[in-house]
Amino acid sequence: MSQPAVHQCTCPRCQSQGPHPDRLLHQQINLLSSRLDEQQRRWFVALEAARLGYGGARLLTQITGLSPHTIGRGRRELEGGLTGHAVGRVRAAGGGRPPREAQDPGLRPALEALLAPETAGDPMGRRAKAKRSSLAHLSEALAAAGHRASRPTVARLLRQLGYSPKANARRTEARASPPERDAQFRHIAEQRAEFVAAGAPIISVDTKKKGAGR
User: Fold this and answer.
1) Which end of the chain has a smaller Cβ tally under 10 Å, C or N?
2) 74 and 112 belong to one structural domain
3) 92 CB burial (10 A radius; 0-12, 13-18, 19+)
4) Which parts of the sequence are annotated with region: Disordered (predicted)?
5) Is the pTM of this model over 0.85?
6) Residue 59 belongs to what domain range?
7) Per-residue pLDDT tens for 83-112?
C-alpha cells in the first residue's frame, strides 16, 4: 500500500537553505497530519495554532497547507466540545454520494426488464435466482438504454433482487446457440408473461441429465 503524501512546509525558514531548530518539528507535524482523516487533521492543526498564540494560524497555514478558514473551523469545533462529531465518523450522517439507483430511479426497473426473459431459479426457493448474462453484459445493456451502472453496482442490485451475481454456468453455450435456441428462450419468456398477466400459475422444473447406468 502506498504511503500518503506528506506536505512540505512553505514557511520562510524551511524554504531557506540554512538550518533552523524547528525544521524537524514542522516535518513531524506534516507527517502526523498525513495519517489523520480530514476532521482530525483540522483539529490537530487548530490545537497547534492555539498553542502558538498570535500568528499561529498563519504559520500553521504555511506549515501544513490548510487554509485559515479550515483552521478556524477546527478551533470552533474544539471550543464547542466536538458536539455532533460521532466517534469513527468523518462526514456527517447522511453525507456522501447517494447510491446509483437513488440518482436514477429508472435503473432498477430497467435491470429487472433485462433479467425477465432469461431468469432461471430453484423451484423450491432454496437458491438465488440465476441469469445468463454476465455483469459486464448487463452493465453495457443498461448503458445502451440510458442507465449508467458499473459492474459492482449491477452486482449489488442483483443481490437485492434475489439473483446470484454470477452468470449461469451454461451462458457460454446459450450465447453460442443457433438462432432456433434463442427463439425458444424468447417464446418461453412470452408465454411466461402471458401467464403472469392472466394470473395463471407457472411451474419451474429443474432437470438434470444422468449418466448411463445410474
Assistant:
1) N
2) no
3) exposed
4) 160-183
5) no
6) 12-79
7) 877 666 555 555 556 787 888 888 888 888
